[in-house]
Amino acid sequence: MIDSNYRWVIVAAGGLLGCVAIGSMFALPVLLRPVAADTGWSVTGVSSAMTIGFLAMAFGSMAWGSLSDRFGPRAIVLTGSVILSGSLALASRASSLIEFQLVFGLLVGAGAAAIIAPMMACVTGWFDTHRSLAVSLVSAGMGMAPMTMAPLAAWLVSAFDWRTALLMVAGVAAVLMIPTSFLVRRAPALERSAPVLPAQDSPPSMTVAQALKSPPFVILVLTNFFCCATHSGPIFHTVSYAVSCGIPLVAAVSIYSVEGLAGMGGRIAFGILGDRLGAKNVLVSGLLLQAFGALAYVFVRGLGEFYAVAAVFGFIYAGVMPLYAVLARENFPLRMMGTVIGGTAMAGSLGMALGPVAGGMIYDAFASYTWLYVGAWAMGVGAFLIAMTFRPFPKEKTEAALAPA
Questions:
Q1: Which of 373, 372, 374 is nearest to 359 (CA)?
Q2: At residue 199, what are phi and psi to the nearest 5 degrees?
Q3: Are 57 and 112 in contact (CB under 8 A)?
Q4: Nearest 5 degrees, angle CA 308-CA 310-CA 315?
Q5: Rg of the Cα trace of the chain?
Q6: What angle do CA 267, 273, 279 make, to 5 degrees?
Q7: Vertex 345: Cα angle to 340 and 51 (nearest 5)
Q8: Are 334 and 197 in contact (CB under 8 A)?
Q9: H/E/C letters for each residue in 158-171?
Q10: 302-348, pLDDT tens digit by residue?
Q11: Which pLDDT value is given to residue 22?
Q12: Which of 52-66, 81-95, 195-209, 254-268 shows the lowest per-residue confidence on average (mean pLDDT)?
């Protein structure tokens, strides 16, 4: 067991950084209609900025994760904080749709990618026990975004125009994230340059290339892709869907906050269950429940119904997300955690990229979100079926199976 109280400082820093990074990106759903109304840009066009952002997160996650393995998480997280806050400010000045899509999408997405995977990898290295809980607490910090950054963005855009509101969000991000980045440290085993013990059930000789080709990694990647494809559309378009049902914007944003509050509870509950019952068992069960939670949105119209479904859906989808990092740490060596978790995060971000643009296209074509939620249900069932095939590395056979040819 790593005996250091500082590990909980790492958890707190990771939670705050993730909250602001994710919250800054998800200010866009709140600003979606004000931006479209002010500029004349289509809902699909503005939504596409979020899709581009998730694509940037996807392709940046493994790169930033690999760099954090080499240079340490502090330098990478600090760089990401500067990029994210600066690009939010630039996006507030965008004069065309393509400029907004590229600045908000590419740069904000790249900045967020430098936070998520490196911090998740960093936290897993600080904990030998209570690992699921620790990772879940960091994820719970990210889950606070709908209760903090989203209401802040809604209040700002109700008092100012969307450009001023986004510029203020950029300032908040800079003030909070840049100083917090200096609290981040490598895990003690890596700081001391001590021999790093392999993860449970993984061989000492495993190389990065072998890890990325292994069945456990491939299954984690595919599961995370379909899992995120399940909840990305419902998350992004919940506010717009509620408004289309006649619910005022401020009340609609409160649905988002209920979902986030439930998600915090879900992350902690699933983390505790993961430590007790095993991360895979909890993940598989959660994925099946998530699929039907997404489908439930088809049947809601009133504010109370939205609250009920958002609470259940948020509890489940948020709860399963930290378990991917736990499974990665249980099956791969610490020295490559940034790369492995970055790879799974890349797949998740690609899945997240589907929802915003798909929902926008569906709404523009049918003036309804029904098929978005039906499609999300199908993706969720797919994630469940893939996760069922996950098998940890066999203790006796792993060395022979993964040894260099």
A1: 372
A2: -65, 160
A3: yes
A4: 105
A5: 20
A6: 90
A7: 150
A8: yes
A9: HHCCHHHHHHHHHH
A10: 899 999 999 999 999 988 988 888 888 888 877 788 888 888 888 88
A11: 87
A12: 195-209
